[in-house]
Amino acid sequence: MNSVKQFAILTPRLIIVPTPTAVSFNSYRALYSELYGNVDFCQMGFGDHYPAVSWSDEETRDVIQTRDIERCWQRRGLGDFAVALRGPSTFEPDSHSTQNNGFTTLKGDEYVRVAGLNNVHLAASKWVGYAGLRDATTTSMPPREPGDPALPSWLEMIELRYGVSPEFWGQGIAQEASKAIMQWSVNERGVKRFVADTERENSRSAKLLQKLGFTLSDTNYWKEPSGLEWECAAK
């Protein structure tokens, strides 16, 4: 069983749910499998490092469980979030207002009212992608080697990642979701700095990171010639 308490984040257009909850939704698993089976999605996000794959529903659940829930949520209390469009009815933008910083976190009874009994409303949502935060030192970074500089605290090594269905590219969804979870992680987890890694040809992600306040860095954490590295101090 996953130990992460249930909560959700609302933005003007989106409802954002941690994957320890979303992994139980057939609809989200289907979207996640579809993304990683899409050649255009994988090529843009990962280049030649990660070709498109075909997962069964059981394999998709196992991937989310092992790569995200066990390595990230259960270890650091943060990880991937499933991203869905708000609406209709319960999730219409005017039915739950957001705070001045662009998002609000729903917990306890408020979460239950929005999610519905046994998360029935959430399960029926239109899932469009994911946005995630993870400790890069224990997930995506290669092992440190003799002579490498010492790394800062893991709270300064939080990697931002995101993926949106090509059907919804160009609509600002990744930016809206990323901004919300970044601020959530600062407020709730004490994150101090964010990092990211993109393919050099991925100008779409580069523009998104710049909009979120990231700048290019020369850290070379991932030691990947085909990639660019970015950083952003928490605010």
Give me a quick take on this structure.
By secondary structure, this protein is α+β, with helices and mostly antiparallel strands.
Structure commentary:
With 235 residues, the protein is α+β, with helices and mostly antiparallel strands. Helix content is 34%, strand content 22%. The protein has eight helices and nine strands. Strands 4-1-2-3-5-6-7-9-8 form a nine-stranded mixed beta sheet, sandwiched between helices. Strand 6 (158-164), helix 7 and strand 7 (193-199) form a beta-alpha-beta unit. The longest helix is centred in the first third of the chain and has 20 residues, at 57-76. 34% of the residues are buried.
Features:
alpha+beta; 9-stranded mixed sheet
For the biggest β-sheet, the strand order reads 4-1-2-3-5-6-7-9-8
Q: What is the share of helical residues?
A: 25-40%
What count of helical segments does DSSP give? Answer: 8
What is the end-to-end distance?
34 Å
Overall radius of gyration? 17 Å
Strand content: 15-25%
Sum up the overall morphology in one term.
globular
H/E element string?
Answer: EEHHHHEEHHEEHEHEE
Mean pLDDT: 91
Structural class category: alpha+beta
Instruction: Please describe the biggest sheet, giving its number of strands, its sense, and whether it closes into a barrel.
Output: 9 strands, mixed
What is the β-strand count?
A: 9
The oligomeric state is single chain
- Low-confidence parts, pLDDT < 50 over ≥5 residues? none
